[in-house]
Design a protein that fits this description.
This protein is mainly alpha-helical. Helix content is about 55%, strand content about 5%. The chain has one domain.
Length: about 270
């Protein structure tokens, strides 16, 4: 009998493959994915291989690899505190990959929408860059703060922890949205309610109250945000062909011969 954790992992894998039109063989085949549709569109416009499209497709295969990882299927949520820690680290690995995908989407959105090069983006003043990044994240989440909130969570819980999570991690416990029916709790780190725990008061330098729990988002929630980002980028490209043309020209591989059809191995 499969554990609840194993079923959630498998469901998320099937959902990911269905939403992104990926087929796993020896490795991920994403010939039916959004990335390859962009590449084929570029070919029809007379461009050669556009490196960023295949690169994003290949990097997103990390999600497939992680969701196929069955090593922990014998474990279950709440089997023990130690096993919950193992499951939390598994989720963290998916979140870390997702954060890099969101950052690539964000930069690609800015590049296309503003028609500026990667060099120009790097040269922006920090205030201007932050504004453009925030605007891109909002656009990629259909006008919501969902991506900004998730990235804040990932950065403070999974990444840069010395001034965030490590300050408040007093043998913390985990609530998984994929398993628990969450009831309101005091002192719980969760999306949009993180900064009251992960830092010092700027005036007094006194630590904030330590939380008792971290609430972990569902895997399908992460997948929905990623696949929605694909859709937003595609709509941007279709809304103004000059933006798609700019991206294709910016990332075109002039040393690679044109081929008839895009594939996952370009």
């Amino acid at each position: 009998m499969k554990t609840d954790y194993a079923l959630k992992r498998r469901d998320a894998l099937n959902y990911w493959k269905s939403k992104t039109k990926r087929v796993f063989k020896i490795s991920d085949n994403f010939m039916g994915s959004m990335e390859c549709s962009w590449q084929n569109r570029s070919y029809k416009l007379g461009f050669k291989h556009v490196s960023i499209f295949c690169s994003i497709g290949q990097f997103a295969s990390h999600i497939t690899d992680l969701l196929r990882d069955f090593r922990f299927d014998r474990y279950n949520f709440d089997q023990s505190e130690q096993i919950n820690e193992v499951i939390f680290r598994y989720y963290c690995r998916i979140f870390l990959i997702a954060s890099e995908i969101f950052t690539d989407f964000q930069d690609l959105y800015i590049l296309a929408d503003e028609k500026i090069s990667t060099k120009d983006i790097r040269a922006l003043e920090s205030k201007d860059l932050r504004l453009k990044q925030d605007n891109a994240r909002t656009a990629l989440a259909n006008g919501s703060d969902d991506i900004k909130i998730l990235l804040d969570f990932i950065n403070k819980i999974c990444k840069h922890k010395t001034s965030n999570f490590h300050i408040c991690n007093n043998h913390i416990k985990y609530i998984f949205d994929d398993f628990h029916s969450v009831q309101p709790r005091r002192k719980m780190i969760e999306l949009s309610k993180i900064n009251s725990f992960t830092g010092y008061d700027r005036v007094t330098l006194i630590k904030h109250n330590k939380p008792e729990y971290i609430r972990i988002p569902k895997l399908t929630y992460i997948i929905d945000l990623i696949t929605n980002g694909y859709d937003v980028l595609d709509k941007l490209f279709l809304s103004d062909p000059t933006k798609f043309d700019f991206v294709s020209r910016h990332y075109e591989d002039l040393n690679k011969s044109k081929v008839k059809k895009a594939s996952a191995t370009i």
